[in-house]
Amino acid sequence: MEKLFKLKENGTTVRTEIIAGVTTFLAMAYILAVNPSILSAAGMDQSAVFAATAVSAAFATLIMAFFANYPVALASGMGLNAYFAYTVVPQLAEQGITNPWQVALTAILVEGIIFIILSIFKFRETLVNKVPANLKNGISAGIGLFVTIVGLKGAGVVTTDAYYDGKAVQSSTLVKLGDLGSAPVVLALVGLLIVAALWHFKVKGSILIGILATWVLGIIAQLTGWYDGTSLIPDFSNYHVFGPVADMGSKLAFHFDFGYVASNVVNFAVIVFAFLFVDLFDTVGTLIGVAQEGKLLNEKGELPRVGRALMADAIGTCAGACLGTSTVTSYVESTTGVAEGGRTGLTAFTSAILFLLALPLYPIFLAIPSFATAPALVFVGLLMLKNITKMDFNTDIADTVGGFLAIIMMPFAYSIATGIMFGILSWVILKVVTGKIKDIHPVMWVAFGLFVLRIVTIILGISS
């Protein structure tokens, strides 16, 4: 262990690292219930997605452990999975694509390959440094709101305000409050309060415990007849230890669609860019946050071996796409393990092993309903929304408006990509108008041009 992870050099022990790894896993294990629930909405097999989520998380985290030696765990990213299921797939479906999720997986594979190339040439750090802080924080906060509305909608807490008047479907407002007397709505709200209370008392795995508690309350509601939806009791009737792994191999793994790329270059490029952009700042922001928590930065404020950490993230993304899940990225929940003393890759190694050990428990994770995972989505949305406090609204007007539009357009247009698009377009335009064209880095011009092409294709009806 000493030779592999340099424990003494980092002032830690095997026991401390293992406890930290267990803590990190408990803090992020909710993804094993949330990700299958979200991606199944895209038409993907729930059991197969569960296996892909667990295996890709373990694989990527092992690379982080042995290649970068950092206490950072990885898994399918929140926000990115919602963009996959609720934006990309529906848009592709409207174009008549038979299996739109295959195109989305192809985009993630391409994104991962681009990340590998950028990591080799140390270009990812340059990209991050050239995007204004307000825009970065606005994008993170906007994703938080987007994830929140996805969770509320999935539990029925908010619903579409539509009714049929005998002639046509009418709507007085865009959304309205759901049925406060229904079990899913009540239980989702109770679950959110449970997570919040546990978080306040710094209970390890508070989000996961909140999900499980809400699920158990749901089972009680089902047994008493209050809840009459799909059964919430795990089904072990056709149990096979590695059943989900077999499903992953036959139903998801390497199911790419490169045919779409050739005939829809601009659309595909926009999808890839949105995944790329969000994952870029999510990863770097997470690594910096974990490093600050664990005091891993050097005297210059830099993170040693950051290139290796970014490479682990990029390889994990490619592996996740091949296995059949949305973008794999570094998890900010890794800070919980660091807070317990985790300082090396042994922490990540422990978390990775626990992801693999969770595979035989798939009937439990797959029985958890959307109203039980809603508290996790909403609370993660809260944590991401906190980035708005880092924004400066009294600074340059381009930075202010760009960040603001990124925040509001994601939930209101129900698209992460749209929020990024409006944020970047407004930022570049206002920089030009205010005579600060020299502040625009070439990478921002590339993004601007790509989004202009996207708007043109929409106006001309080439794409939705």
Automatic annotation (TrEMBL):
Domain of life according to the entry: Bacteria
Keyword annotations: Cell membrane, Membrane, Transmembrane, Transmembrane helix, Transport
Regions that span the bilayer: 12-33, 48-67, 72-89, 101-121, 141-160, 180-199, 206-227, 265-290, 352-385, 397-430, 442-462
A UniProt-annotated Pfam family: Xan_ur_permease
Subcellular location: Cell membrane
Bilayer topology: Multi-pass membrane protein
Family that this chain belongs to: Belongs to the nucleobase:cation symporter-2 (NCS2) (TC 2.A.40) family. Azg-like subfamily.
Protein name per Swiss-Prot or TrEMBL: NCS2 family permease
